[in-house]
Amino acid sequence: MIKDLFDMQGQVAAVTGAASGLGLATAEVLARSGARVVLLDVDARGLQAAKQAIESEGGLAETAVLDVSDRAAIRTVIDDIALRHGRLDAVVANAGVSAGPGYRTEIGQINAVQDEQWDRVLAINLSGVFVTLQAAAAHMKKQRSGRLVAMASVAGLKSEVMCGYAYTATKAAVVNLVRQAAMEMAPYNVMVNGIAPGPFRTHIANGRIRQPEVAAEFASMVPLGRIAQPEELKGLVLLLCSPASSFMTGTTIPIDGGIMAK
Ligand SMILES: NC(=O)c1ccc[n+]([C@@H]2O[C@H](COP(=O)([O-])OP(=O)(O)OC[C@H]3O[C@@H](n4cnc5c(N)ncnc54)[C@H](O)[C@@H]3O)[C@@H](O)[C@H]2O)c1
């Protein structure tokens, strides 16, 4: 009974940004739950390592190199997955990049924001998420079932001194994109939800958060007093992709050690 709630046997899932960090943790847990997982990322070598790790645990994994700032490539990859497997059950639009430091640092202040950096972050963190959801939605509407999950951030729910402007703006946009898509998709039995992580120990921003002094600074903002390991995302992302979340849609859930409750 409990197992059935989280069972994704026979289902097909796709995860963007799956070669590292939260995307890799997502791919691992969906594979563990029985889904065939398609890992998508710009990092070809990272994809191979991730696929091997999942297969060594008995999971079913495929990979495709994908840059989510390339709209046409996203559509081709998602259509191909749905066509080859005849279904598409869960898609996690996770790929995202940092926009550099926040306004506390001079290069993170509003006057220092460069057009090229702004455009690049919007292309990946916002258009990339939108087109991933859009491409998947077409199949899920026809199928009349599915789960769409977008990776936002607590930096999209409130201002964040440590994060750049384009990052906070795109993450906030993702939160409302989730609501909007959830309303349209509700009659089709497709749930659309977001996840808003606090600080996790990943490779984002060239692994800056892995430096002890940066980790300590982030940890000081967290009521639980530490940053999280990618493993700790698994419960929530599995919930949102599995039968257990059949009455949840349109929401973005913080997983933040208590930050949003402060
Ligand atoms: N780590 C955190 O503290 C934290 C907090 C809140 C939200 N997030 C969000 O979680 C998501 C995952 O980040 P992470 O922390 O695991 O970082 P990460 O850098 O460890 O992983 C991100 C992955 O995305 C891939 N990627 C980057 N640009 C891409 C592109 N254009 N197309 C396809 N793949 C691309 C990278 O190659 C990498 O494998 C991001 O959306 C990030 O904003 C992270």
Coarse structural class: alpha/beta
**Largest beta sheet, briefly?**
7 strands, parallel
When the domains are counted, the total is 1
Give the tally of β-strands: 7
> How are strands sequenced across the largest beta sheet?
3-2-1-4-5-6-7
CATH-defined fold name: Rossmann fold
Strand content: 5-15%
Count the helices. How many?
9
Write structural notes for this entry.
The protein has helices spanning about 1-5, 20-30, 45-55, 70-85, 115-145, 165-185, 205, 210-220, 235-240; strands at about 10-15, 35-40, 60-65, 90-95, 145-150, 190-195, 250-255. Helix 2 packs across helix 9, helix 4 (about 70-85) runs parallel beside helix 5 (about 115-145) and helix 5 packs parallel to helix 6. Helices cover about 45% and strands about 15% of the residues. It is globular and about 50 Å long. The chain is built from 9 helices and 7 strands. It is an alpha/beta fold. The model has no long low-confidence stretch (mean pLDDT about 95). It has a 7-stranded parallel β-sheet, sandwiched between helices. It has one domain: NAD(P)-binding Rossmann-like Domain (Rossmann fold, 3-Layer(aba) Sandwich). Strand 5 (about 145-150), helix 6 and strand 6 (about 190-195) form a beta-alpha-beta unit. The structure holds nicotinamide-adenine-dinucleotide. Nicotinamide-adenine-dinucleotide (NAD) binds near residues 67, 95, 200 and 204.
